[in-house]
Amino acid sequence: ETGVTQTPRHLVMGMTNKKSLKCEQHLGHNAMYWYKQSAKKPLELMFVYNFKEQTENNSVPSRFSPECPNSSHLFLHLHTLQPEDSALYLCASSQEVGQGGTGELFFGEGSRLTVL
Amino acid sequence: RKEVEQDPGPFNVPEGATVAFNCTYSNSASQSFFWYRQDCRKEPKLLMSVYSSGNEDGRFTAQLNRASQYISLLIRDSKLSDSATYLCVVNSWRSYIPTFGRGTSLIVHP
Prior knowledge:
Oligomer: heterodimer
Number of helices of chain A: 0
Structural class of chain B: mainly beta
Strand content of chain B: over 45%
Structural class of chain A: mainly beta
Largest sheet of chain A: 7 strands, mixed
Order of helices and strands of chain A: EEEEEEEEEEE
Number of helices of chain B: 0
């Protein structure tokens, strides 16, 4: 039980589809993150939210659209993706060092996306 | 210079060996340090935090050298199950966004 839950765990979609990835954390953390990890590649930070406000957009194409309705939930909306977007998408949360936390990241199990 | 640098390896060692990984960081304001382990096609999981005084957890020992800005991870008596990628992660006091190294791959063989 990681405290960070991602759904769906696996997703196959066509290039014209619209889908969403969901992340939920039950840890009371103030920061939430989306990471992308392609096969045999390092983690790539995509988006960061702190107290529901987006604070980082790491030059991510607009076909990826994040949404953070509250501090416990994070979505990644996907539309007109490309086959090279196939990857493991990882959500994480943390409590900031300056907010009484340790900065440790807690990851969900990831959503494995395949774009056909 | 990358903010957090690790030797990507792979480190290929026999069971029972002792292996050490180093990680250097460039931000002198860094305050929190971690080692994560990532198995193939899985999410990273915290292996251990790294404290100024150094810390040990069973076969694993982590050290921090602030003057030289590096952290290390020592694994004694390697097991086959230790095969994974080990990620160095650094946080500064002013930023809640952790910085990851690219990871060091460890392969333990019989």
